[in-house]
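Course exercise 7: structure representation. Students receive a sequence record and must write out the corresponding structure in token form. The form below is the worked example handed out in class, using MFS transporter (453 residues). Read each field label carefully; the graders check that inputs and outputs are placed in the correct fields and that the protein name is recorded exactly as given.

STUDENT ID: A-19
EXERCISE PROTEIN: MFS transporter
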Amino acid sequence: MRDSDAPPGGIADLRPLDRAREQKAWYWYDWANSAYVTTIATVMFAPYLIGIAENAAVDDRVDVLGLAVAPGSLPSYLVTFSTILSAVVLPPLGAMMDRTEHKKQWLAGFAWVGAAFASLLFFCRGDNWEIGAVAVVGANLCLAASMVVNDSILPLISEEHERDRVSSRGWAFGYLGGGLLLAANLALVTLLPFGLDEAAAARISMLSAALWWAGFTVIPFVRLRNHPPVDVAPATGNAVTRSFGQLAATLRDMKNYPMALTFLLAYLFFNDGIQTVIASSSTYGSEQLGFGQSVLIATILIVQFVAFGGALLFGRLAARLGAKRTILMGLGLWMVIVTVALFLPERSLVPFLALGVGIGIVLGGTQALARSYFSLLIPRGKEAEYFSFYHAMDRGTSWFGTLVFGLVYQFTGSYRPAIFALIAFFVLGGLLLMRVDTERGIRDAGNERPAVL
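STUDENT ANSWER:
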């Protein structure tokens, strides 16, 4: 606790209780947005939109702003476009968020607009793929913006020694919520009750994810407090001018936080490896190992629910070993996972499901601790801005891993060396993370040193 924050003598310090209440409210946003990530972005959007685009295709092509695009490539192009757009938009947005005390209003606003975009997928039917394109680009952009605001709230509602636990519980809550709705939606799509056809069931499932996202966002909106901005650099002009002025000042000032920059570079590599493993796992399971859709769906659900426990486990390990050591341990496990995948026998169900369990254990933990660890290395008053760079790094460079995966497959004709090649991202990320001097980074940022590093 900082001396300036100490309560007056003789008065009980109720701030830990206040923080605990806010933390519990904050967890609900991970629960809310994970429904969109799992049901729509991960499972249902791409195959559904491809089918709609195929209905509209002429000579197996649809016209996208004058470009002839194959229906099967359309979802990838849309996700890439929204990713690049968000990487450009997030840094100035983060600078603006650091200047406002109304973060919970912005969080809810981005979430509700994003959910409104996502709900448009319900009206994407026949050959009207354009509605789906607008929906996913708008929803992805709003999701990215809301995550910047959400992550910047973490340092405001938790002391340094609490952040690993709080971040891990948020991730765990998200995996549980996303997994529960995904299980219900997959049952709807598989069983097709009430005379529904597959397309109608998919549209209802995607609408349910949008409503889930919007509905559960009400909890953090109501229960979080607004915190006044601190240590904001002076700037003149309107809100946009002030935001870009602060962004320029931060870019000049980043050299004073070399440990934060080193971690961002490490995160670039190991997070790209994680995202590529997740994005490529269904392709690997179906094309290389020969598993059908039912096995892949079951594996997705296993990963979701195991990741709930994995995030909590990693939070406990960080309390004993420190976040950096625990992340490094997680990266070691990722190296084991891609190595095991290299030798996994075809159509061997138990080893494949065991690999899914391994991914679930390490998935949520590494991502949750990366968020809390980074929060220790960034200066107070610039949380949203630095987390905007954190997410821009994630989104602006997330094509490296998929490029490597695709090139190795193209040259070898096998997905086995392609999945194993991703070990390089974990090795490079781990080596760079080992160069981060945690104590120096915390000291440079002016934060309190947790008891365990």
